[in-house]
Amino acid sequence: MIITTRTGITEAELDHIRERVEALGLRTHISRGEHRTIVGCIGDEALLQEVPLRAIPGVESVTPVQKPYKLASREFTPGRSRVRIGDDAVIGGGDLAVIAGPCSVEGREMLMETARAVGSAGASALRGGAFKPRSSPYAFRGKGEEGLRLLAEARAETGLPVVTEVMDTRQVELVAEYADVLQVGARNMQNFSLLSELGGIQRPVLLKRGLSATVTELLMAAEYIMSCGNRDVILCERGIRTFETSTRNTLDVAAIPVLKAETHLPVVVDPSHAGGLAHLVAPLAFAAVAAGADGLIVEVHPQPEEALSDGEQSLTPTAFAELMRRIVPFAEAAGLRPPRAPAGAREAA
């Protein structure tokens, strides 16, 4: 249930509305807009059916919410959410955000080379896996805390905030010590214990859509995090599993405008995992931005043929810089401010 208050409501009236709702066993969440305040009622809406909410002083309108996700819904929060990562980067604020870096942190030299390259090309943040979920237990599964320390070192040198995956509830506090954004991979989208744990930390969460998850299931996963107190959630469409085998996954371009209509949360797209091949990354990125994505997350490696994971879908630094140059008209057509390389990098080039 969404309660919209009248203009000029007093704090005493607002408190009274919350008290009436909470007395029935529901929780409330306040969203303050420029002219109106919205009271989100979280819980069993049936408990409010017999209450004359419109008669409470300060109430202007009451809107039932039939969707299972409430905190993530467009009705719950006026406008669109902006998620700040690091000191300066914002996802969902009108700038096209690009998160880039290697699939896995393999060592200091390769990570620093990649971080400098993506930063010079205009990336908003650095991605890199310290803990890697792999289909085979014999594949390279990351360098763990050593990888986290290297990511922190790269952030200190380049100024890029760090995005890295957390796989287990036991890793949350450790990863949060080093990372600016904690990523939930596709395989963990419905790891509800992990989602609940992430709801209790003060770090943005980048939530990837599961391999076979519906849009509603993705939003319900976000609801888990948000219901536990963390409202800084970024949704990621990374391709879903279909009958098609010519690409690694099938990029659900339609999910982007659907999500933008259903939720106030920012939406980013991972064209690397969707296509699975480097030459597919750019066209899928262009399509994602044209469809309304707030950002991209792209895999970049200085020597893809030597990468310990996902080399076939990783761009070289040169190819990434070209992608960043070519993405500009797509961002502008979508009403976004395109990424720009730092002035020093442009002059050096």
Quick overview:
With 349 residues, the chain is of the alpha/beta class. The protein has twelve helices and 14 strands.
Task: Explain how this protein is built.
This protein is α/β, with parallel strands linked by helices and 349 residues long. It folds into 2 domains: 62 residues, Alpha-Beta Plaits; 266 residues, TIM Barrel. Helix content is 33%, strand content 17%. The protein contains 12 helices and 14 strands. Strands 7-8-9-10-11-12-13-14 form an 8-stranded parallel β-barrel, surrounded by 6 helices. A hairpin with a 3-residue loop joins strand 5 and strand 6. Helix 2 packs parallel to helix 10. The chain is elongated, with a radius of gyration of 21 Å.
Q: Which range best describes the helical content: under 10%, 10-25%, 25-40%, 40-55%, 55-70% or over 70%? A: 25-40%
Termini gap: 55 Å
Tally of structural domains: 2
Computed over alpha carbons, the radius of gyration is 21 Å
- Average pLDDT taken over every residue: 92
Compile the SSE list and pairings.
Elements: E1 2-5, H1 11-22, E2 27-32, E3 37-42, E4 59-63, E5 83-85, E6 89-91, E7 97-101, H2 108-121, E8 125-127, H3 145-158, E9 162-165, H4 172-178, E10 181-184, H5 192-198, E11 205-208, H6 215-227, E12 233-237, H7 255-262, E13 267-269, H8 271-275, H9 278-290, E14 295-299, H10 317-326, H11 328-333, H12 343-348
Parallel strand pairs: 7-8, 7-14, 8-9, 9-10, 10-11, 11-12, 12-13, 13-14
Antiparallel strand pairs: 1-3, 1-4, 2-3, 5-6
